[in-house]
Amino acid sequence: MRKRNFLPDPDGILLVDKLPEWTSHDIVAKVRNHFQLNKVGHGGTLDPNATGLVVLLIGRGTQLSARVMGGDKTYEGEILFGVETNSQDTDGEVTSEKDPSGITEEQLRTEMKAALGDQMQMPPMVSAIKMNGVPLYKLARKGQEVEREPRFIHIYKFALKEFNPPRATFEVKSTKGTYVRTLAHDLGQRLGCGACLSQLRRTQSGDFNLSNAWKLDDVLKWDRTELEKNMISVRDF
Asked: 47, 89, 91, 218: which is the annotated catalytic residue?
């Protein structure tokens, strides 16, 4: 059993490039245990199979949580047309399949442009939002569906990068709390063929960019001195 470290936590922000299957909580736990830290949090979750930028908040950096989580987010991803699932991504159970061959690139660009701006978005049942203290995804596993309150979001950008039917890659920039898999699902509904999210990678969160993030495997090779050297100071934020 590792002895407890009584050294004070360093204070700051560490940018990590998340791999698929790891949860944001997993990354927090790994970093906390490796460096024997007392306070570690993160500035916004990613779904387990999503990749990209996770902002870790360490020591007094945890006091910046609301500010970091409130920042706009940018993602790159891929949509699969012709398939709907109960989670709105390819991790879920297929609920509907249709032929998407009639979709044209022009139609796709038109519908993506129509998704821009202020709107109310209905959160998916497979989500961590709590209803009477119970996460919705736990109710969804039991086959239950409950009424959810739509959330106000703003989509600044929803741009097509490449269309290789039945798949399309895209970039989206949005306000906090936006479910990109719901954007994909709703796009499929408007096109009449259904769709789900097949890949997602967060490239920016507020002022923080993925290009400045560290691989977790590299972080776990550091000692505390290297950790402090590679963190962003709370004074710089």
From this structure: 47
Residue 3 pLDDT > 70: no
Question: Letter for the amino acid at 199?
Answer: Q
Same domain (yes/no): 107, 197? yes
The reply to whether 144 and 232 lie within a common domain is no
Which of 119, 120, 28, 102 is closest to 65 using CA atoms? 28
pTM equals 0.91
Asked about 47 being catalytic, the answer comes back as yes
95/232 Cα distance (integer angstroms): 44
B/e letters for 156-191, b = 16+ CB within 10 Å, e = fewer, are eebebeebeebbbbbebbbbbebbbbbbbbbbbeeb
- Count how many Cα atoms sit within 13 Å of the Cα of residue 215 in the half-sphere of its side chain: 3
Q: What is the model's pLDDT at position 5? A: 58
User: Residue 11 half-sphere exposure, CB side, CA atoms within 13 Å?
Assistant: 9
8-to-62, 165, 170, 197, 223 alpha-carbon distances in Å: 14, 54, 43, 42, 14
- Verify that 52 and 145 share a domain, yes or no: no
How far apart are alpha carbons 235 and 237 in whole angstroms?
Answer: 6
Same domain, 79 and 179: yes
Please state, in angstroms and rounded to a whole number, the distance separating the CA atoms of residues 124 and 193.
19
Contact 170, 79 (CB under 8 A): yes
Q: What is the pLDDT of residues 124-157, one digit of tens each?
A: 877 677 777 766 667 667 676 777 889 999 999 9
Q: Are residues 48 and 84 in the same domain?
A: no
